[in-house]
UniProtKB/TrEMBL annotation:
InterPro entries from the UniProt entry: AKR, Aldo-Keto_reductase, Aldo/ket_reductase_CS, NAD(P)_OxRdtase_dom_sf, NADP_OxRdtase_dom
Signal peptide: 1-23
Record-given protein name: NADP-dependent oxidoreductase domain-containing protein
Keywords: NADP, Oxidoreductase, Signal
Ranges where the NADP-dependent oxidoreductase domain occurs: 52-354
Tree of life domain: Eukaryota
Gene3D superfamilies: NADP-dependent oxidoreductase domain
Pfam families: Aldo_ket_red
GO MF terms, alphabetically ordered: oxidoreductase activity
Length: 369
């Protein structure tokens, strides 16, 4: 508890600028402000409760998209401090996958192995710490049958150094074999290897059929993890978000910061390096500026950064849990400040309407996952 208290002060000091009249007038003055750790959401119809936002661990150990194709000790320390800073600020939900990081490429290390190590090291200091781990099954074309799901999960558990995980997700729909995968998820629940199950990047049609199939086994489909941010609102248009609402499935929003483009730090003169530079070009970032400016302005009224505003915008959609990626402690601490306050409905709608003027970039290489 002392831990939460001191970290809340720390984030208040470092992240909140001078509050304005607006912040005082908001409901924060009447009700006690909840810290990121106190506010939790039940994932779909499952019993699993997670913090209002989670941390994405895709970049940890990765050398194929992030980290300038190179993993080293300095990046390892930064990732570990991102993990510790999340826990310190009350965020205890982490999303990884068996394909994150790499076992193949030289020098890199799997994200699951890193997350497992960070948890283990933290438990030495902090034995009572409770972490919710989500990982994913890679539906590779040669993997067939329900057994393949349970056996891949066992390999993930081995890398994580855990006897069970909180959420196991099918990373993407398979070309075939999907019914077997769903049965495998249910088997994993029955064997006590996982508390809740979900899918990722599932269309409305696939989502409904996965939901029905699990229901027959008496197991709720807890979540669908899809690309969702202020500038990538496809789930609002393709029926995925409304099906989630109807069926009580939590939408986990990946790339909620549009891979950093929505944080306001990238400008036409300062584009991201690496593969992201090809997506977020000076032309695209020029078109993004009016939205970023308005996000910044609204944030100033609350003493919040653009990153905190865009994450709050997603949290405002009720049954949505964003999982921004954190590469260092500073980024993770900033995320915690996205929780415990709310944009007004007018602000939520205004931002959606400004964003709808911008044509979304349809990404390349990660689309392959
Ligand atoms: N299911 C799927 O198929 C799928 C696909 C993609 C992602 N995901 C999950 O979603 C998670 C998040 O997605 P993502 O990593 O693609 O994108 P994201 O969360 O939108 O962006 C993360 C990147 O933004 C930058 N950033 C983060 N915090 C910042 C801050 N406070 N200020 C400025 N810049 C900041 C960092 O990169 P720099 O510091 O280098 O700018 C960071 O790596 C992943 O880790 C993964 O768990 C899942
Ligand atoms: C997600 O959307 C972003 C745009 O915000 C895009 O750049 C990225 O490639 C997309 N990723 C996937 C896996 O679809
Ligand atoms: C439902 C959903 O978001 N589906 C997307 C999954 O990813 C492919 C690309 O790999 C997109 O085309 C789908 O729209």
């Amino acid at each position: 508890m002392a831990l939460h208290f001191s970290s809340a002060c720390f984030s208040a000091l470092t992240l909140s600028k001078v509050p304005t009249v607006r912040a005082v007038a908001s409901d924060q003055s009447s009700t006690a402000v909840k810290t990121a750790g106190e506010e939790k959401l039940k994932l779909g119809g499952s019993e699993l409760k997670v913090t209002r936002l989670g941390i994405g661990a895709w970049s940890w150990g990765d050398t194929s998209y992030w980290n300038n194709f190179d993993w080293d000790d300095r990046k390892l320390k930064a990732a570990k401090s991102a993990f510790d800073a999340s826990i310190d600020s009350g965020i205890t939900f982490f999303d990884t996958a068996e394909v994150y990081g790499s076992k193949m490429s030289l020098g890199a290390i799997s994200s699951e192995t890193l997350l497992g190590r960070f948890i283990e090291e933290r438990k030495v200091k902090n034995p009572e710490v409770e972490v919710a781990v989500a990982t994913k099954y890679a539906a590779l074309p040669w993997r067939l049958g329900r057994e393949s799901v349970v056996s891949a999960l066992k390999d993930s558990l081995y890398r994580l150094g855990l006897s069970s995980v909180d959420l196991y997700q099918l990373h993407w729909p398979g070309i075939w074999g999907n019914e077997g995968y769903i049965d495998g998820l249910a088997d994993a629940v029955e064997q006590g290897l996982v508390k809740a199950v979900g899918v990722s990047n599932y269309s409305e049609k696939r989502l409904r059929s996965a939901y029905d199939q699990l229901k027959k086994r008496g197991i709720p489909l807890a979540s669908n993890q899809v690309n969702y941010s202020l500038i990538y609102r496809i789930p609002e248009e393709n029926g995925v978000k409304s099906a989630c609402e109807e069926l009580g499935i939590t939408l986990i929003a990946y790339s909620p910061l549009a891979q950093g483009a929505l944080t306001g730090k990238y400008t036409p003169n300062n584009t991201p390096s690496g593969p992201r530079g090809r997506i977020y070009t000076p032309e695209f970032l020029t078109k993004l500026q009016p939205l970023i400016n308005r996000i910044r302005e609204i944030g100033q009224g609350y003493g919040k950064t653009p990153t905190q505003v865009v994450l709050n915008w997603l949290i405002a959609q009720d049954n949505v849990v964003p999982i921004p990626g954190a590469r260092n402690a500073e980024q993770a601490t900033e995320f915690a400040g996205a929780v415990g306050w709310s944009l007004t409905n007018e602000e939520v709608e205004e931002l959606r309407s400004i964003a709808s003027e911008i044509k979304p970039v349809i990404g390349f290489p990660v689309e392959k996952l």
